[in-house]
Amino acid sequence: MAAITAADVNKLRTMTGAGMMDCKKALTEADGDFEAARDILRKQGQKIADKRAENATAEGLVLAAVSEDGTNGKLVALACETEPVAKVDDFKNLAQQILATAVKTNAATKEELLAASQEDGRSLQEHITDLMGKIGEKLDVVAYENVTAEKVASYIHSDNKKGVLVAMKNVGGADVATVGRDVAMQIVAMKPVALDKDGVDAATIEREIEIGKEQARAEGKPEAMLEKIAQGKLNKFYKENTLLNQEFVKDNSVTISQLLDKTQKGLTISDFKRVAIVG
């Protein structure tokens, strides 16, 4: 059996990022064969992934990057099972690696991002699986968003578990950095379901109308008036739950649509993406 030296262990640690004892154990099992030892460590990570596949991931980090010209934004959410893991350097470095890969590849989907090759030739997903073996709990990219627009604003909430990208159009020559951040903060706080009423899906509209009718019926309103009352409640739903119609949280005398128009005539939001790591 090959003698396993401290230098061998350190070499494998550098290659894989795995812990010292795990590396020593893998090298011993592989009789000093580094490639075989790497395979053992990968299998260890996959075992963790398989065993903990159904576990909840309620902690983690949300990160954002906006291009230098402000026309593209990336948003990634890497989740884990426990708060202590979200605070360790290996986890934070992996989250940064995922964001950097998104920026470098301009991946269109999460699947494309996870398949992206890293410097060592392995995929990003393989790196994630390897860290599962080292940390011993489930890690998951629970969200990835890629937004392009005239200008993109981003915001990461103070808990680092919620983030937003806002796509703006009709920017003209205005400096929209402040209003873009304000709108992004609004989205984190108020959780709009759509941009405006045209973006609300039919099932939600139908549900809100039925709720409105049931409420009116419970209040003893005549059957003939239920539809009209329900439509009124639906309009209130639009005002409270669609971004452009919401009152601005910092100044409820204006809606988000009015706030944007005051900043630059015609300025509006073409899209937004909100991600959150939740239990």
Write structural notes for this entry:
The chain has 279 residues and is an alpha+beta fold. The protein is 48% helix and 20% strand. The protein has helices at 6-16, 20-29, 34-51, 83-86, 89-105, 110-115, 124-135, 177-190, 202-218, 226-241, 256-263; strands spanning 59-66, 72-80, 139-148, 151-156, 162-169, 247-248, 251-255, 268-276. The chain has a 3-stranded antiparallel beta sheet with strand order 1-2-3. Strands 4-5-8 form a 3-stranded antiparallel beta sheet. It is elongated and about 85 Å long.
SSE topology sketch:
Layout: H1 6-16, H2 20-29, H3 34-51, E1 59-66, E2 72-80, H4 83-86, H5 89-105, H6 110-115, H7 124-135, E3 139-148, E4 151-156, E5 162-169, H8 177-190, H9 202-218, H10 226-241, E6 247-248, E7 251-255, H11 256-263, E8 268-276
Antiparallel strand pairs: 1-2, 2-3, 4-5, 5-8, 6-7
Helix pairs in contact: 1-2, 2-3, 3-7, 5-7, 9-10
Domain Translation elongation factor EFTs/EF1B dimerisation: 74-276
Keywords: Cytoplasm, Elongation factor, Protein biosynthesis
Protein name: Elongation factor Ts
pLDDT < 50 runs, ≥5 residues: none
What is the arithmetic mean of pLDDT? 91
The SSE order reads: HHHEEHHHHEEEHHHEEHE
Q: Report the strand count.
A: 8
Through-space gap between termini: 48 Å
Described by the principal axes of the CA atoms, the overall outline is elongated
Global Rg: 25 Å
Strand content: 15-25%
Helix content: 40-55%
Given helix and strand content, the structural type is: alpha+beta
Largest sheet: 3 strands, antiparallel
Annotation field: number of helices: 11
Largest sheet strand order: 1-2-3
